[in-house]
Amino acid sequence: MDGIGAMRVLLAGATGAVGGPLTRALVGTGYDVLALARSEGSAAAVRAAGAEPVRADALDRDGLLRAVDGLAADAVIHQLTALKAPSRTLTADDPTNVLRSRGSANLLEAAGVLGARRFLTQSLVLGYGYRDHGERFVTEEDPFGVYRGTVSDHVVSGLVEAEERVFAADHVAGTALRYGLFHGPGTWFDPTPGSRPMPVPLGGGGVMSWIHIDDAVTGTLAALEHGRPGEAYNIVDGRPARFGDVAAAARRGRPGLRLPGWALRAAVPYLGDLMLDTTLRVSNAKAARDLGWTPHHPGHPGHPDHRANG
């Protein structure tokens, strides 16, 4: 751990698509991991990964603070989401938004009880706005929190609130990790046999920036060790690709479920904003420079953009 020693970390979301492999990676790297667990099943899973469960719900402020009372940690990592299959409707009180708002507030209080001085929060590149950003690569210097007056604004507002809470806290050094769209086990684009395919537009849809779960984990570890206070980092693979290309790669070349744009938008309006209206190429140059991080998963077969990002 580059001389950090036996750092102790409280991880919220330790059994999720990112949190599960992140728990194993933290333990394997030598960190002492406390992992929030709402149920005995979750507690058993984190024990099996080598972490110490802390039985608490991040949305139960009083219960969480009681659970961490008497414990100590150097850092808190917020990886809590409820990103299941997209629902027909999306509202301001979407479960993931609640985790990004009230969950962030409660975890920041818990960080104070633990004596933690570092706080990493999960964010997404989608905060740059659900629109066509053109051919250029977006950087952390571009506006974040761009709204367009559609259902996707609920996602953007949740991301902005999570980041603002962390950056405004005066008792921790906060860092935001703006991940690309996830692919890999446990995500919408899961290559595991038997996983449910995500519908994509006929023609492939828009170009998006991506990150494999394994690279999200290594990027998070790099930010924990080298991230600067008050900074956001784009954690993307640098190889933008269309939704259809990623879906095909996840299904090992099988076409999967492809819908006309009008049908996709009618079924789930949010997917229209995301897959039809958004073109978003994002640079990882800052993360490479400041964190010494390089993603290891290659670009996606058939992706249209083979240029290195700026």
Largest sheet: 7 strands, parallel
Q: How large a portion of the residues is in β-strands, by DSSP E?
A: 15-25%
Radius of gyration over C-alpha positions, nearest whole angstrom: 19 Å
**Count of discrete structural domains:** 1
Could you please describe the fold and organization of this structure?
The protein is of the alpha/beta class and 310 residues long. Helix content is 35%, strand content 20%. It has 10 helices and 15 strands. It has a 7-stranded parallel beta sheet, sandwiched between helices. A two-stranded parallel ribbon has the order 6-15. α3 packs parallel to α4 (95-114) and α8 crosses α9. The longest helix is centred in the middle third of the chain and has 20 residues, at 95-114. The protein is globular.
